[in-house]
Specification:
- By secondary structure, the protein is of the alpha+beta class.
- It has helices at residues 9-15, 26-45, 69-84, 223-233, 249-259, 278-291, 322-333; strands at residues 56-60, 66-68, 88-93, 100-101, 113-121, 132-140, 163-169, 173-178, 183-189, 194-199, 210-212, 242-243, 262-265, 295-297, 317-320.
- The protein has two domains: 9-199, 2-Layer Sandwich (Fructose-1,6-Bisphosphatase, Chain A, domain 1); 210-333, D-Maltodextrin-Binding Protein, domain 2 (3-Layer(aba) Sandwich).
- 27% of the residues lie in helices and 23% in strands.
- One magnesium ion binds at residues 118, 121, 249, 281.
- One of its GO terms (molecular function) is fructose 1,6-bisphosphate 1-phosphatase activity.
- Substrate binds at residues 121-124, 214, 245, 275.
- Pathway: Carbohydrate biosynthesis; Calvin cycle.
Length: 336
């Protein structure tokens, strides 16, 4: 991977095109499309209080969650931008019941990629001015080029991803992604509308001192998770760790990748499979984590080895600094 601090995202994409195993320029166009949609969404997010984009639309998505205006705005912008560029043959989104098959105007199109997105991550934080994000995961289709995509093209295990990333709309706006050759972070200069390489070759510190979990659910967690949380809080060695939970997966992950930490959304007696969606939340964050020397598990198993069965399936998710996730796994194993 070739990287020079402060080079633009556009320059970085071109310079690293050949390090991508399927390099044909299509993936570069795809990342460029995501860059463009991220800027459009960032523009709305940054002035959310001034325009009528706060609050819900009074409808729920396929998962029974209240859809926020910004969920739908971001969903529309990412789908539209990807469609207009004629580089993907299918899209799946948290806000769409089923996948969208993209028919090209060019019958001989060679579009090989499908994209899965969480257009707006951290929806519960939109109205309270806390950082939110967008998450994306990219696969090569498994069905023949030129034919309509099928569910098979989306239900691929995470270890088949060719690229994944997120945008965090926070104190600054960053796009962080991997194509399987390390993780790089780009910060948007809003005045110029350009992303610059600010965080080359991001790495999870092997150890960390931050644990991120919604402790309001503590009583519903299984004993292994409870014991690990108690371990984090114990006055011993380099503990207690600090508890930090923003409630936006992207923002909690981003902080933990920079400072060292572990994020947990376990299954519980109320959320039998946890809350987070395997295909457009857990798999992309797991790909990034592993590319940044971290780990991502669902309990006993590696998240990216899970064979998906449904578009919106949920799985327990534990992700972060290598030694912290391995320690948690020790506690979980005690009760399996
Ligand atoms: O409020 P809870 O139950 O702790 O859940 C917070 C988690 O849910 C999410 O908001 C789910 O994502 P969406 O906002 O995209 O639905 C994560 O970003 C976050 O980590
Ligand atoms: Mg989400
Ligand atoms: Mg969302």
């Amino acid at each position: 991977m070739l990287s020079k601090k402060n080079q633009t995202l556009g320059e970085f994409i071109i310079e690293n095109q050949d390090s991508f195993q399927y390099s044909s320029g299509e993936l570069s166009k795809l990342i460029n499309a995501i860059r463009l949609a991220a800027k459009v969404v960032n523009h709305e997010v940054s002035k959310a209080g001034l325009i009528d984009i706060l609050g819900g639309v009074g409808e729920t998505n396929v998962q029974g969650e209240d859809q926020q205006k910004l969920d739908l705005f971001a969903n529309e912008k990412f789908i539209q931008t990807l469609k207009n560029r004629e580089i993907v043959c299918g899209i799946a989104s948290e806000e769409e019941d089923s996948f969208i098959s993209i028919n090209s105007n060019d019958d001989n199109h060679q579009n090989k990629y499908v994209v899965l997105i969480d257009p707006l991550d951290g929806s519960s934080n939109i109205d309270v001015n806390v950082s939110v994000g967008t998450i994306f995961s990219i696969y090569r289709r498994v069905t023949p080029v030129g034919t309509p995509v099928t569910i098979e093209d989306f239900l691929q295990p995470g270890n088949k991803q060719v690229a994944a990333g997120y945008v965090v709309y926070g104190t600054s706006t960053m796009l962080v992604y991997t194509t399987g050759d390390g993780v790089n972070g780009f910060t948007l200069n809003p005045a110029l509308g350009t992303f610059y390489l600010s965080h080359p070759n991001m790495q999870f510190p092997v150890n960390g001192h931050i644990y991120s979990v919604n402790e309001g659910n503590y009583v519903h967690f299984n004993q292994g998770v409870k014991d690990y949380i108690k371990y984090c809080q114990m006055e011993e060695g380099d503990r207690p760790y600090t508890s930090r939970y923003i409630g936006s997966l992207v923002s909690d992950f981003h902080r933990n990748m920079i400072k060292g930490g572990i994020y947990m959304y376990p299954k519980s007696s109320v959320t039998m499979n946890g809350k987070l969606r395997l295909l457009y939340e857990c798999n992309p964050m797991a790909f990034l984590a592993e590319q940044a020397n971290g780990l991502a598990i669902g309990g006993k198993n590696r998240i990216m080895d899970i064979q998906p069965t449904e578009l919106h399936q949920r799985v327990p998710f534990f992700c972060g600094s290598r030694n912290m996730v391995e320690k948690l796994q020790e506690f979980l194993k005690k009760y399996h």
